[in-house]
Design goal:
By secondary structure, the protein is α+β, with helices and mostly antiparallel strands. A six-stranded mixed sheet has the order 10-11-9-8-6-13, with helices on one face. It has a four-stranded antiparallel sheet with strand order 1-4-3-2, sandwiched between helices. It has a three-stranded antiparallel sheet with strand order 5-7-12.
Length: 557
Amino acid sequence: MRKIGLRMIIILALTLVFSLSFTGFIIFDQYSVSKRGQESLVEEARLFADAMDAVWKFMDFAQNRYNDDSEEFYQESNLYCAIVGKSVGAIFSADNDYKIRYTNFNPRNILDTPDDFETKAMTVFKNNPSTREYYGIAEFDGQDVFRYVQALEVEESCLDCHGDPVGELDVTGHEKEGWTLTSMGGAISIIMPLDFYDSAIRDSTRNDLFYVIVNTTIVFSLIFLSITFFILRPLDRIKESVGQLRQGEFAPISTEGYQAREINELIEGFNDMAKDLKSSYLSLEEQVDSRTQQLIQANETLEQLNDRLVQEVKYKSDFLSMVSHELRTPLTSILVLAQLHKEEAATRHNVKLQRAWVEIEKNCHSLLGMINNMLGIARSDAGTEQVNLDFMDLGDVVSSLKTTVLPIAQSTGVSFTSQIDSDVPLVRGDFEKTQRMLENLAHNAIKFTPEGGQVKLQIQYDKETDSVLIRMADTGMGIAQEDQERIFDRFVQLDSGITRRFNGSGLGLALVRDYATMQGYEVSVKSVLGEGSTFVIRIPSEALVIQGSEGEKADDE
């Protein structure tokens, strides 16, 4: 519809209205003409029937004069009612195509036997004595004709030949039928051709169609010319001005000429808008020039700020790397001394001193982990972190992991176990970063698992997805559904209460995700609040080297 012009829409609308009106008129006109034509046929048939009935009654009145002599002796003159009726019908239909005849259920002459239409009509008369006529268009001798049947009443004179006693021969030698004054004396049947009727319908329809077509054409033309002159021509001027407006010309539309009031208001509104646009356009050019200069200055300032920011980020990363590196050396020394003194206290059976050194060792491991995390994040931000992908046996990673995790787990009263299935293949990855990922997950699980809880590391090969799954499961406090995604963000802990209760920088899980992404791994978590959490590292098939055999390789506590 958007591609059809307004003129075409108006023409289609007027054509549709004309077609519907014309079709409705044809249907109504055919019905009206047909009804009037049938009424005319009925009136004409009634005139014929009334005329013949009048002749019948005249013969009934004068019959004795024709059939009796002056000495009241009967003379055969053959002027009986039936003969007279048929003769009159023949005279009436002599100069036309009408057929007029008398009929009855049991006629004396076989030629007067009723056909189906006449039988149906007389049946209606018999069942409903108040009905005296029956008519309609029906087939006769293979063509459609108008048929009219009128019931005949029994007169007093009819009883001489048709009354009682039944079976007695009348003056014509026929047996009497036993009629009474309430009997039906048969019917007069008139058959009229439809040639004149059809011709009248055609002439009337042709005249009506000519009148409708002429009037509709005049009205159609007047409506279209009026719409074109008062609406379409002004709209063409508006369209032309819109095209000029698109090219940057703000020429007003002329209001001279004739147009509808609404179109005139539209033109005036368009002219006001064009005037405002012209003023705004000139002002906008000035503002654009001014804003352009401001943007150039702003870009220069942003470039300077960006250079400073890059330098500050570099300073921050260098500072963190330097501080982290310088802190690791003395912290490692403290950790070694703590382990030596712990073993010495154990040999002396000094439980109190042994517990103190265990606490120092645990906190040193925690602090060393935070320093390593900070150093990893700083390298990642600086873009200096590199990944060395090589063949890696996850069993070796777990063995190295247990040396740092088991002491912390034992000191907090948490059970730490590991299980590696024997069919786990070699994988391609960075040994150091993978170990760091598992350390962060293990420390995190131990930290948030209460005393007496369990942390289990399980590594297995998943045949359905052709991948290796590393699961770190705990029976700790769990993570709410809405927090399970944001815990991988940097410097995020669940709430202030947890921050006060558990030490940490909030970088461990963020570093796990960064290292996993660097190696092409995936990290996810499933957790139920109050029941524990399971972190899963999926190593895809692209990183697998050799698939092992089935069975379990280790189950350590």
